[in-house]
Amino acid sequence: MEKHGLVDDILALHRKENELTESKSMQAMCQVYAAVSYICIGDAESSSQALDLIGPVFRVMDSYVGVREKTGVLFAYGLLLMKQHNLQDARIRLAAGLRITHQHLGNIQLVSQYLTVLGSLALALHDTGQAREILKSSLTLAKTLYDIPTQIWVLSVLTALYQELGERGNEMENSDYERKKADDLQKRLSDARSSIHHLEIIQRVKIEVRQLHEHDIKRAIGGPSAKVDLDIPESIGLSTPSPSLTSTRLYDIDSSRRVKDNACFCQPSSE
């Protein structure tokens, strides 16, 4: 219930942001963020709402000036395909989004997120060799960025991988490391909440939405992250031509409601 309430708060914020801006680019990103939030809820109704949000943006994503919208749309689109158990098409979309992010956007954190989802996807497809390779790359990036939530997410997927492979020693060691990271994150959050500076910042926060200036648009178009050694596995195929971004269509969400949703792929299980 706590998680659901938090997602509801996030959705309300995205709706408010969408109302306050006239920027088509910003509206598209708000719809992407809201769609991912719905996917994280995990039930069939929320997946249907995510489809309603992401579908229209996906159809026109080639019309946007920058690549930020394309990478966001492909990330959400791939997640939704995974929820519909359309795993091969999800892999194509996510690999395409990773390719654009890596070559043009320069957002290393998003690269790490893409790798984590692709690692989860490889595990779901029982491609354990690729899953191990991808997840280790993602964990390395998350450590470089001091991104503890993503580290915990990757570690939880690695634990599931070791369980499937029957590597009991690695499973226990990895699970213990994951638990330590989770404890560390909770301590950091508690320290932040108890800080008077944190409370002052929260009280001063206001939603400010403005049109992107030309400088910001150029920055959104971005520079390649290829200058950084990201250690992305060759098996993902970043050097291969990108598939057509509009060749795959999401099938009707109603047909997937008969399929049991086992977990939300956006974040690690709390179990």
TrEMBL record:
Keywords: Cell cycle, Cell division, Chromosome partition, Mitosis, Nucleus. The keyword Cell cycle applies. Its main location: nucleus. SUPFAM superfamilies: TPR-like. InterPro entries: MAU2, TPR-like_helical_dom_sf. GO terms for cellular component: nucleus. GO terms for biological process: cell division; chromosome segregation; mitotic sister chromatid cohesion. Belongs to the SCC4/mau-2 family. This is Cohesin loading factor. It comes from Cinnamomum micranthum f. kanehirae.
